[in-house]
Amino acid sequence: MVRDWVRWHEDYDNPDSSLSRRLDVVREHLRGALAGGARSLLSICAGDGRDVLPLLASQPGGRSVRALLIELDAELSGRARQAAAELDLPLAEVRTADAGATATYAGGAVTDAGVTATSARVEPVDVLLACGVFGNIPDADMRRTVAALPALTNPGATVIWTRGRGDGGTDPSAEVRARFRAEGFTEVAFVAPHDARFRVGVARRSGGGPADLPTVPRLFSFD
Ligand SMILES: C[S@@+](CC[C@H](N)C(=O)[O-])C[C@H]1O[C@@H](n2cnc3c(N)ncnc32)[C@H](O)[C@@H]1O
Asked: Is 6 helix (H, G, I), strand (E, B) or coil?
């Protein structure tokens, strides 16, 4: 199923929507990570960047954070780029690229046309956001993506992720939490409102040194 992600963002227009409530939770934890002295940030499948960009502009130290937002959709990445310019965030880069392709992190860029171009290698960061990702990809891709996070983060880094509750009896966020634990992350927060379908997890990379990206062409593909 190909979703209209521009339209999906319209739910943010309603301040009472589940998505707006989720945004508040993500921002709260991002605020905490920035207050903790984060110097670099990566958002994969960043959408229009509304979780990250206003906080970089408003939080003490936020303007000196080097931020990379990777978003495949040209309209949404264009909006994020425009927001970064309007907020005067020269250290925030918005890359219209495929966050599921390993090449994107290793210094390539895979475009819609399948063209591989050279761009800067993605350095490990202090804060990584994976919001609106794990509910849209197969479980095997989620596991592969979480396994790649040590290569994309510094020791002590904070990862903020989200997952929908789903319709079944089991909560798929349990498996995401388990994968983070298995990859050496410590959970520092897990928000699961009883009256909303979203879950927000916050995990800290406990230790370890630099890690290599997996030698696979793709980490994930959206369903
Ligand atoms: C559910 S939305 C989440 C957007 C944003 N992170 C948020 O929480 O508001 C998923 C986003 O992922 C983008 N996306 C889908 N596949 C992608 C890929 N392979 N690389 C980068 N972005 C992708 C979509 O265009 C969409 O903007």
From this structure: helix
The Cα–Cα gap between 43 and 45 comes to 6
Dist CA 90 CA 127 (whole Å):
18
CATH number for the domain formed by residue range(s) 5-205: 3.40.50.150
pLDDT digits (tens, 9 = 90+) for 13-65: 999 999 999 999 999 999 999 999 999 999 999 999 999 999 999 999 999 99
Q: Strand, coil or helix: what is 124?
A: coil
Closest alpha carbon to 173 in 193, 149, 201: 201
Going by their DSSP bridges, the two strands 92-96 and 185-191 should be labelled as unpaired
Give pTM, 2 decimals. 0.95
**Structure token pair of residue 44:** 């994969």
Tens digit of pLDDT for each residue in 65-105? Answer: 999 999 999 999 999 999 999 999 999 999 999 999 999 99
Residues framing ligand 1 (Cβ under 6 A): 5, 8, 45-47, 51, 70-73, 76, 98-100, 131-132, 222
CA distances from 210 to 45, 100, 155, 170 (A): 23, 20, 8, 35
Instruction: For residue 130, report the distance from its CA to the centre of ligand 1, in Å.
Output: 9
Average pLDDT, rounded, for the chain: 92
72 C-alpha vs ligand 1 centroid, how far in Å? 7
Supply the residue whose CA is at minimum distance from atom 14 of ligand 1.
45
In the numeric block, the tokens 């970064």 are attached to 84
